Amino acid sequence: MPETLRFGSNTGQPVTRRDGVAKVTGAATFAADNRPDGLLYAVYASATIARGRVTRMDTDAALAHPGVVDVMTHENRPALAGDPDTKPLRFAFRMPLLNGDEVFYANQAIAIVLGETLEAATEGARLLAPEYESLPPRTGLDDDAPFVSAGGAFGLPEGKEYGDVDAGISAADTMLEARYETSAQYHHPMEPHAVVARWEGDRLILDLPNQAISMTCKTLAYYFGVPPENIVIRTPYLGGGFGSKALLNAPQVLAMIAARKAGRPVKLVLRREQLFGPTGHRGKTRQTLRLGIDGDARLTAMDHDTLAATSSFDEFLEPASNASQGLYSAPALRSVHRGVRNDIGTPGPMRAPGEASGSAALECAMDELAEKAGLDPLEFRLRNYAEVEPGTDKPYSSKALRECYMCGAERFGWAKRPQSPRQMTNSNGHLVGWGMGTALFPAPMFEANARATIRADGTALVETGAVDMGQGAWTSLAQIAADSLGLPLGRVAFHAGTSELPDGGVAGGSAHTATAGSALHAAGIDAIAKLAEVAAADPASPLFGTGNAGVAARDGWLIAQDDEARRESFADILARAGLAKIEGTGRGARSSDASKRHAMYSHGAVFAEVTLDPYVLQPRVTRLVGAFAAGRIVNPRLAESQLMGGMIWGISFALHEEALCDHRTGRIVNGDLGGYHIPVNADVSDLEVMTIHEDDPYVNEIGVKGVGELGITGTVGAIGNAIYHATGHRIRRFPIRIEDLL
Ligand code: MOS
To answer: Boundaries of each Aldehyde oxidase/xanthine dehydrogenase a/b hammerhead domain copy (predicted)?
Structure first.
């Protein structure tokens, strides 16, 4: 295929979000904005204990309240076709769907009340006044016997081992053994989890914010005993997901069951504090790293052991040890994950699952080791730069990490960094420190399908089922499609986000643009090929007989490759052929061959400046520079915005975010956005993102990797290292707080 057909002038442009106006004017409807006729409002009662049983609920009092229509508890929840105690699919969680009276975590749904109004349902839920028999909750990593992850299932990461780790460690000239801890974090998308559910016979129509529509249809089909086609999910807009909407949660399913039981549509919107429990979270970790280096400061072995909290009824172990794979050149590596059962909601994927927590530990450990080796932290990383993937020796499909290091360091002024800590102060006499970290995230692809339709008026409609989480996929995916079709962006309409469209796969894993983009690209090429066939076979077309010489699509014209004067517009070709449209289809996925040949990752380098008043010791990130390489940047504005968001989450991880559990009750004491700290504008000063050019001919047809999760990785470590450089204190627990620095 000629390059002009593949990529025109749309990709690479910093186009603003196409759905931006609809969003800021309120024209974009989110799931909870839907109000079908006969709607009932659902409110659920949340368990106030973390472990035990519900012994009594005053359902009579709730039912007696005016406007309350129904109360569903474990005693009257209709039977499900599929047992919720099983996992219907590889990517599904076990869910307490009022299966019994047991409480597994605080904020678990223990009853759901339907009302004619939200107020009636809210009051009904309050009147239930549940009583419990409670047991002491397990809330810490030492509260139960750990188990080793065997791998082989979602949530149970594979261990990895290559080379002789023990030999590498005994041969090391210098060793670092350090233990790092990361806290539990809860995703808080601006749009809380919600659902509007209505049944039409045995068809279930859902307005449901969800990152994995087709998978979710299958899970629900299992629970309700209907074919997956009977589940219709419409979720054109999402107000953020961050992984928390990748999987269904129990309250959403309960609302669907309640709608069927009541024979009326039901709306449920989780309250902000209800997002601390049933909707997944980043599980806390304790990571032990053992790294050895030889006399030349080259790694001899890496040993990364992660202990992570999971729930009592399912497994999701934060795959933090994965961060040590694929980045630094070490002849031997062992990564292990172990889990501990706590009485908490099951953790789940949260932006950069594994790498965010793991790279925080790894990048701090690398900084500690660089100091032991007497080397600048950047020099130390360059000395351990992997030219091929460690352990497999596969070449990288592309890797501009060295350029990221150089450009980022140059921009930041890294060369002026004194090697020892506590050397720099600013004009206010505040301590200043500089630190860095490497960013790494795999560049996976899932599977997506798409359709491209060239219409009689010469415009096109492109469609794929997957959602836009808010990051701008509506725009960047349309840019890719427009180039494949040889059309200006304004002549390409884009539909996405419903299960009625071709299965668009999952919006997650930093793979959405790569996967859905590849599918749209293939669909566009297919449509153009079909259009070209029509023209080439038509004696009345200027393109008659172009056949082998081929044509390119540009600006709504098909143009003969060998003679620019021979051209015809899409509209004319269709009109003369008497066609209302031409449709192409495409699939995006990576062949296992491609994965066998190349290792694929996005990379970056993050440089941080931290400033602290020596008497107050509150760390402030006064400067952050990130340089990232992620293949083709489809839309620099949106990509940089994603990376910036990731880096801000890095600030959050390093200095703010922590769900604090009360060990007596198992409840989260700061379980709302008043107490759960995240950075505000005042916490983010000077933040700069650079993207480094990277041509990747192997990662997929469109050369796109991913940027969604990359920005967090590297940033946390860079900030921790900058705090050390400013204060001389090595803090190995995140978030780093004032009291740690006293
Ligand atoms: Mo992401 S944690 O795959 O939404």
So the answer is: 25-136
